[in-house]
Amino acid sequence: MTVISAFTGLGGLDLGLERAGFENVGCIEQDAIARQSLLANRPDWELIEPHEVSAVSRTIVPVNIGLWRRELSLLAGAPVCQPFSKAAQWTANGRRGLADPRSRCLTGFFRLVDRFLPRVVLIENVPGFIRGDESALKRVTRSLQRINRTHGTRYKARFEVVDAADYGVPQHRKRAIVVAERGGGCFRLPNATHKSTPITAWDALSPLHVAPAPQVELEPGWLDLLPSIPEGRNYLWHTPKGGGLPLFGYRTRYWSFLLKLAKNRPAWTLVAQCGPYTGPFHWNNRRLTETECLRLQSFPEVWRVHGNAAQRMRQIGNATPPLLAEVLGRAIAAQFFNREFCDAPSLAIRKKAEPCSVSIVGSAPSKYKSRIKNWPDHPGPGKGPRPRRNSARDEKDLQAA
Questions:
Q1: Which pLDDT score, from 0 to 100, does residue 220 have?
Q2: Tally of CB atoms within 10 A around 361
Q3: CA-to-CA distance for 247 and 236, rounded, in angstroms?
C-alpha cells in the first residue's frame, strides 16, 4: 500500500498511516521549516518538488515517482484549515471559507487526484471544512464529479466529524474526515474505542520526565490568575456565573483565555497560534512544554521539531494526531485492501493505574480586587466588538491590572 501526502506539515498524518502499513512515496510541503522537521525524522520520505501543492499538481505525472496512473493506493492531505476554522473568527479577516485565497490549494489537491486516480482519497480538516455556510463540501463534491465524468471513476465523498479523544488521543480535537474510494465504495468509520473511557491528560503526561519549571515570577498581566482557576476551567471562573471573583463579563473573552488542563479528562484542543494568555495551560499553572504538547498530540517522544519556539508550536498545533491517522489508516486498509489487524494501534497510550489528585485552588491576587464590579456580559451572537477593539480593550485592562 502506497501513500502520497499533501500539506504534510510535521508529518502526523503520514506517521499514523505508516504505522497502519502504508509506504510513503512522497510528501508535498510548502513550509521550509516543516521540511527540516520531516527530514530530521524520516529522511527516506521523498520531498516532492516544487514544494507547493498547486505548483506541483500542474507538472507532476505518476511516472515521476515510479507509479502508473491508478497504481497509487492513497492520496492523503490536511489542507490549510484557517479558512474554515472557528478560531479564525477572532482574526481580522474572520472565517471566509472558499472566499479565502488560502483555500485555492484545494484546486491543486484535486488536480493531483485527477493525475494519479488513487484508489482512496483521504482529507482531514477542521469541522468547518464540511459544516456551515463557508464549508468546502460543495467544492469537494463537484471536483470529484468532474473527475468521474472525465475518467469513468466513481469517487463519492463520505464524510463525518470525529473527536480524536474517542479513539484514544489524550486531547479533545474534533476533525472532519472525508474519504472517497475510486469504485464508489462506502467507507465506514471505525467504532469509537475510548468514548466512555478516554485517555486523560494525566495518563499522557505523568510518565514524562519533564524538568521542573524554574522558580520565577509569572509574566505580568493575567497569568498570575492561573492558580486561582480550578483544573479544566478558564477565565469564566472569574465571572458572575463562575465560582471566583467577578473580574470579567460572561463570554467576553475567547474560550482558551486562561484555560487549564484537568488531570482526569483529555486535554483541550492544542492551538497553533499561542498568544500570551492562550491555553491550555498545565494544571501546575505553567505553559506546556514542547514534549508535553507532542505527547498530547500522540507523537512519540523521539519526534523532533525544527524552528524557533513559535514555529515549533505552530507545527505541533497544526498537526494531525498520528494515533487518529493510524486508526483511520487501519480502517482504510481493512475495508479496501483486505488487511487484518489483531493488535492495538502501535501509537496507543495506556491508562495509568494510579489515581490522580485534584490540584488545590488558590486565591486571586489582591491587586485584582480593584477590578471587581458588575461587568457586562457578551451581548449575544454577532453583536460583540470587532477583534481589533477586543485587542485594544485587553491592552487597556492589562495596563490597569
A1: 60
A2: 15
A3: 9
pLDDT band at 247 (very low <50, low <70, confident <90, very high): very high
Grid cell digits, residue 161? 466529524
Put simply, whether the predicted model's pTM sits higher than 0.85 gets the answer yes
- pLDDT tens-digit series, residues 370-400: 899 889 989 887 676 554 444 444 444 444 4
Adjacent-strand bridge partners of 122 = 76, 179
Whole-angstrom distance, CA of residue 315 vs CA of residue 271: 10
74: phi then psi, degrees, rounded to nearest 5 = -145, 130
CB 103 within 8 A of CB 80: yes
Dump strand ranges (E) for 71-205.
74-77, 120-125, 158-163, 174-181
Q: Give me 356's grid cell.
A: 490522580
Up-side HSE of residue 66: CA atoms within 13 Å toward CB? 8
pLDDT number for residue 381? 77
Residue 201: pLDDT over 80: yes
C-alpha cell at 246: 467577578
Cell numbers for 376, please give them: 457586562
**Spatial CB neighbours of 185, under 8 Å, sequence gap ≥ 6:** 335, 336
Taken as a whole, the chain contains a residue count of: 401
- Tell me which DSSP letter residue 381 carries: T
94: left (phi over 0), alpha (psi -120 to 50) or beta: left
Single-letter residue type at 129 = F
Least confident of 92-101, 149-158, 237-246: 92-101
Distance CA 166, CA 196 (A): 8
Determine the Cα–Cα distance for residues 203 and 199; give it in Å rounded to an integer. 6
φ/ψ (deg, to 5) at 55: -70, -45
Sign of the C-alpha dihedral computed for residues 282, 315, 303 and 40 taken in this order:
negative
What is the crossing angle of helices 12-19 and 322-337, to 10°? 50
Q: Tell me the sheet residues that pair with 26.
A: 4
Give the distance from CA 3 to its chain's centroid. 21
Residue found by looking up cell 527516506 in the block: 44
- What number is the average pLDDT over the span 120-126? 96
Element holding 25 (H helix, E strand)? strand 23-28
